Structures are given as structure tokens and as C-alpha cells.
């Protein structure tokens, strides 16, 4: 490896810690996809990788490039912003459509519609 | 003024986006970014989104702080739940909450806050009855959750938007 | 010593992210229902984006950042289209 040897110790140690922490949190989130038993439980798991994992790894990347190129590098913030804005929208819509399908099939472990009409999704149209 | 700059915050955000992508603060890029920001704000007028005015920026800052704390805390809690899931059955369930928030943008923000926090997921909001259905991963009792959400998120959102 | 440490920790985090992608892939292939598969796909592309970022750190090449940015921007569109499809049976109304 070439350039990483230029990284001074005070920058290398936080980068290592952030990278390892971020990837382990992402792994735990993805393990949740396997270990949790119901779909609605699994719906919570990817948020872990999307919020904590993305922030930690992007900060590590920011520190590395800023120290190597000796100037402020901020464009990883864009990835953090996009992921944090878009993941909730996906999960919300996915949860809604799962609820809709379960109701159509008449599963009794999901709460019924409060008004008793046809399920209307106009509230959360994208 | 309002005619020429219909969405000043949006234009400013687009300008910041442009400068971050190009990674330069040269005058040329600032001019180009400003032009793009204003042009896209005009395009936004044609989409006719709901007009809301943010009222209370102090409350907004406090809310942002609370959300950050809650996200960190629930990240740790959800990690614990997942790691223990093999030994202990996960005690998850649905919670229905009556909320009185009606503003579109405030509801969208509430939805994003609830879903971005691991451990709670927004499922459905019924506009006629005002009942919000969420799913909670680590459920002890539903009443405490509905109380928490009403106090911690709904009240400040009402102060900000309505 | 120092450089060895950072190289090993980048390698370790890449392996861990690869395992995370494997978990998401498992859910995508196995998933009993369609929504489980979409959830797996969603987790898969986020993990892939993080893996690209670690490759960027490893090679100091900013082209990986561009790829990660595109995935972060456009990946969710596919998940939303799938979720819409599950709900209505059609994507564009």
C-alpha cells in the first residue's frame, strides 16, 4: 500500500476505529434481517446500517481524504444526507404495502383498518 | 421579493449542494449554483406544494437535538435486541396513536423522524380519524410509547408548523 | 506498525461489510414473501455503497465516491417502485 502510509497516527487511529465500528454496526443490522422472525420486526433492521453505519464510514472517509490532500473534504456529507432522507421513505412505503397485502389476505395478526373502508393510501403518496 | 425568490431556503440548499458536489468556492461556481437554485425554485412553484412557514427555530433546534439523542439511544437498543434475538423472543407489536397534527409537512417530518429512529416504524396514518399506526420493536407497554411520541415529537412539531 | 494497522483494519471492515451483504442476500433469496425480498435488496445496496466507500479509502481514488453517490441517490428509487408495485400492482398511475 502506498498512500496510506502517509497518514499520521493521530488520523489513522480514529479512521480505523470509525471504519471498524461502522462496519460492525452495519453487520449487526443485516444480521437482524436473518435473526428477527416477523417481517415487521425485520423492517427495523436496515435502519441501523443506514443511519449509524453510513455516518461513521463517511466520517472516516472524510478524515482520510482531508488529511491526505491537506484540505477540507466535505462531499461525503451529501451521501449522509441522501441516505438519511431516502431510507425512511422506502421503509415507510414498504411497511405500508406489507400491511395492505396482509389485510387483503385476511391475516389476523395485523391490526385492522380503523375506519372500515377500503384501505386508502392517499395520505402518503409520493 | 417573494415573487423572485419563491423558496429561499430551497434555493440556498441547492446552492450548497452544487458547491459541495463541485468542491470549490470559486465565484463562477457560486454564480452558477445561485442561478440553478433560483431556477429550480421557480420550477417548484409549478408543483404547488403546501405552503408552510417555519415559526419557531429555537424549538426546531431543540427537536433536532432530541432526535439525534434518540437515534443514538435506539441504535444501541436495537443492536442489543438483535444480538439477543436467538435466546429471548422479541417482544414487538403495533401501537395505535391518536394525533392531532394535520399539516402535511409536519406529518412528513414526523414520519421521517419515526422511521429514521431504529425501533419504531411508521406504517399508516388515517386522515379521517387521525389514528397513526406504528410498529415498535421492543414493546413494553403501548401507552408509554404513545405518550412519549406525543410529548417528545408531536408537541414541538405543532409549535413549529401550526 | 502504524500503516500495517490501518491496512488490516480496512481489510477487516471490508470483510465485515461483505458478510453483511451476504446476510442481506440471504434474505433476498430466501425471504418468504415479496416484501422480505425488497427489504433485502434495500439493505444490499446500502451495504454495497458502504463497501465502495471503503474501497475509496483504500485506493485514495475519488471515482469510488462518485459511484457511491450515484447509488445513494438512485438506489432508493428502485425500492420505492417495487413497494408501489406491491401495493397497487402497477408502478405508474
State the main characteristics.
heterotrimer, B: 162 residues, mainly alpha, 3-stranded antiparallel β-sheet, 5 helices, C: 93 residues, 3 helices
Helices and strands in order:
The complex is a heterotrimer of chains A (126), B (162) and C (93).
Chain A (H helix, E strand, L loop, with lengths): L8 H27 L3 H4 L2 H25 L6 H29 L22
Chain B lengths: L7 H15 L4 H21 L9 H28 L8 E6 L5 H13 L3 E7 L4 E6 L5 H20 L1
Antiparallel strand pairs in B: 1-3, 2-3
Chain C lengths: L1 H29 L3 H26 L3 H26 L5
Helix pairs in contact in C: 1-2, 2-3
Structure commentary:
The complex is a heterotrimer of chains A (126), B (162) and C (93). Chain A has helices at 9-35, 39-42, 45-69, 76-104. With 126 residues, chain A is mostly helical. The radius of gyration of chain A is 21 Å and the shape is elongated. Chain B has 2 domains: 8-47, no CATH class; 57-161, no CATH class. Chain B has helices at residues 8-22, 27-47, 57-84, 104-116, 142-161; strands spanning 93-98, 120-126, 131-136. In chain B, a hairpin with a 4-residue loop joins strand 2 and strand 3 (131-136). The longest helix of chain B is centred in the middle third of the chain and has 28 residues, at 57-84. The mean pLDDT of chain B is 82. Chain C has 93 residues and is mostly helical. Chain C has one domain. Chain C has helices at 2-30, 34-59, 63-88. The chains are: A mainly alpha (126), B mainly alpha (162), C mainly alpha (93). Chains in contact: A-B, A-C. At the A-C interface, helix 1, helix 3 and helix 4 of A face helix 1, helix 2 and helix 3 of C.
Number of strands of chain A: 0
What structural class do you assign from the helix and strand content of chain B? mainly alpha
- Radius of gyration computed on alpha carbons of chain B: 20 Å
What fraction strand of chain B? 5-15%
- By DSSP, the count of extended strands of chain B is 3
Approximate shape of chain A: elongated
Total of helices of chain B: 5
Level of helix content of chain B?
A: 55-70%
Q: Tell me the fraction of residues in β-strands of chain A, as a range.
A: under 5%
Largest sheet of chain B: 3 strands, antiparallel
